[in-house]
Amino acid sequence: MSTPEQVSALERVRGLAREIAKFGAVGGLGVLVNLGVFNLIRHTTDLQVVRASVIATAVAILTNYMGFRYFTYRDRAHSRNSRELPLFLAFSLIGLVIENGVLYAATYGLGWDGRLATNLFKFIGIGTATVFRFWSYRTWVFKALPAHAPEAARGDGRARPAAAAAEPAPEPAGK
């Protein structure tokens, strides 16, 4: 027979696995956007490698924010006076530096600037930055609601954060 602590630990592991899977799905789309934009810029312009990469990373960051907010972390707290977007952008900027630092070191430090090498090191940079992004987004940007927070039903049947539960429900249209 399982103790409540074991069940709780198992539930936490399953929840983390679901979170990682959703993060990976959004991140996978972001990688495709990032590499696609990077290669499009590289093949159609004369921009330097790292500049093209920074632009591609910025486009992917915007794409990822939408996926993280409305898919991966849709059940996480939403703040009315939101610091979420500035925090997301700040941690994304750090991730951009990590990602493009790897590419910069390979391109300018080691002289590996062929198409295959730049894509390989761009991909390695994305992977390295992803570990940082996952930790920072889940810890600081899309904070989990406290387990003991009271929940009130939304109009669509989903639970809403305790802060939102204290607000009066919106008036139905036509009144």
Strand order of the largest sheet: 1-2
Question: How many DSSP H or I helices?
Answer: 5
SSE sequence, one letter per element = HHHHEEH
Low-confidence stretches: 149-158, 160-172
Structural class by sheet pairing and helices: mainly alpha
Helix content: 55-70%
* Beta strands, count: 2
- Kindly provide the radius of gyration, computed on alpha-carbon positions and rounded to a whole number of angstroms: 20 Å
Strand content: under 5%
| End-to-end distance | 55 Å
The outline comes out as elongated
Q: Give the rounded overall mean pLDDT.
A: 82
Largest sheet: 2 strands, antiparallel
Description:
The protein is an all-alpha fold and 175 residues long. Helices cover 70% and strands 2% of the residues. It has a two-stranded antiparallel ribbon with strand order 1-2. A hairpin with a 5-residue loop joins strand 1 and strand 2 (159-160). The chain is elongated and about 60 Å long.
Summarize the structure.
This protein has 175 residues and is mostly helical. It contains five helices and two strands.
Secondary-structure map with pairings?
Blueprint: H1 4-44, H2 49-72, H3 84-109, H4 115-141, E1 152-153, E2 159-160, H5 162-165
Antiparallel strand pairs: 1-2
Task: Provide key terms for this protein.
175 residues, mainly alpha, two-stranded antiparallel ribbon, 5 helices
